[in-house]
Design a protein that fits this description.
The chain is mainly alpha-helical. Helices cover 65% and strands 0% of the residues. It has four helices and no strands. The two termini are 37 Å apart.
Length: 102
């Protein structure tokens, strides 16, 4: 299989420049090649801060839904009223936060 990107460029950096490139790359949550390509092609680099916190919160909400679903399927819970309303409220809060960031 032939590579699409078959050309390579080597550059030399001072230690401080090297650290800065790697710091910015990690902040952007990208690999080095992807980050440098976006920089030199003047493409927008979008950084979403605190995304891990949102993903963790969504994961907790998903776990709650799974637990409720399991209990309903086992016949332990007949009505979901308040629990489901609370989960729905939590989901709406997370989505609103994400939309503000985007």
């Amino acid at each position: 299989m032939e590579r699409k990107r078959d050309k390579q460029i080597n550059i030399r950096l001072r230690a401080d420049e090297h650290l800065q490139v790697y710091r910015l790359m990690k902040e952007a949550d990208m690999g080095l090649s992807e980050y440098i390509r976006k920089c030199i092609l003047k493409k927008e680099i979008v950084r979403i801060y605190k995304i891990k916190e949102f993903l963790e919160e969504l994961n907790r909400i998903g776990n709650n839904l799974n637990q409720l679903t399991r209990k309903v399927n086992q016949g332990k819970i007949k009505e979901l009223g308040d629990d489901l309303a609370q989960i729905n409220c939590n989901l709406n809060t997370v989505f609103e936060k994400i939309l503000k960031i985007i």
